[in-house]
Amino acid sequence: MASGKEIRTQIKSVQNTQKITSAMEMVAASKMRRAQERVSASRPYAEKIRDVIHHLAYANAEYKHPYLIGREDVKRVGYIIISSDRGLCGGLNTNMFKKAVIDMRAWTSKGAEVEFCTIGSKAGGFFKRIKGKIRAQASHLGDTPSVSDIIGTVKVMLDAYDEGEIDRLFLVFNEFVNTMTQAPQVEQLLPVVATEREAELEHHWDYIYEPDAKTVLDGLLIRYIESLVYQGVVENAACEMAARMVAMKAATDNAGELIGDLQLAYNKARQAAITQEISEIVSGAAAV
Amino acid sequence: MAMTMHVNIVSAEQEIFSGTAEVVVAPAAMGEVGIYPRHTQMLTSLKPGEVRITKQGGEEEAIYVSGGILEVQPHVVTILSDTAVRAQDLDEAAAMEAKQKAEQALKDRSDEMDLADAQSQLAEAVAQLQAIQRIRKKISR
Hints:
heterodimer, A: alpha/beta, 6 strands, B: alpha+beta, ATP Synthase, domain 1, Single alpha-helices involved in coiled-coils or other helix-helix interfaces, five-stranded mixed β-barrel, 2 helices
């Protein structure tokens, strides 16, 4: 049986841990709220650019951009993986990596090679460990990620697509369902999948392009991809905070339970020691 | 009353303007364009500059955009504004940086280090588990 003092030290250390986890929980909760606001703030742009792309699919364009044309023969597949920079957020990153790896296996079994671009240091570390080919990397975007942070990494992958080094591009990130649930998602970025909707604009028309179709569409589609990736980044940030909040709440609760158990053990040990002392005194007195 | 159209100005990070307007003047790549309602469909890139909106009723509003894309549908004008100043060489530089980071990470790769790291993490986790089990056992006794 552990002595009273030993148990007391353990209780102290668990209490200290609990203080840290409960503080982290509160920090994550407030950061989550701000992250959610950023998700909703970035939504109008994503919606509008999707509308334009949608119109474009209907327009009778004289020029078809390579991003809009599917490639039959898939030799190489690119993934943009968005993860958090820090751990202590439950199974968030692990679940996403698992999903990415399953998806990746499906491609490799078909004989395609796989390349990565990682955003967030956890993804960088993981794909380095499994010896994945990493083309570009970005990390430490902080709590307020901006579009300019991801332009470079996205461009690397788009250039690879342009040069035929990859034939498909996917985005892997966590979708924020609610505080308790985050769902890992694999989304196809390239070639662009046009969403189907019934024809509202029946007559044939095309845009006036200024200065010319190619330049405008280039700019538009690059921004479209970037906006999808950015959306993924902010959504993933909200997920990270939510997952951390839940994980830290569980840790705090567990610590509380542990303290309760230890307190009980301490009281028992103390009681036993007192009883023993009394019986020693009594038996000593009886012997006299 | 003058005819109006709906105008949306959004950037990737936030919504900037949304409302009805009579005229929109925007700095298109080929020169400034003025858009009135029922303009034909148009798609153009924007230069950094000022977008002037004459709102319903004649009130004017000016918004600075650092480039972007302008889409015109007969009754809807959408401006997708950039948040950062974009230029080919700037993008190129950003791409280079991202590539370098990946290469740097690759150079830093030393398997022993990773293995040691993983092992120490595993040892830590095992120790923690043992500690918890020990505590639990003590309590149940």
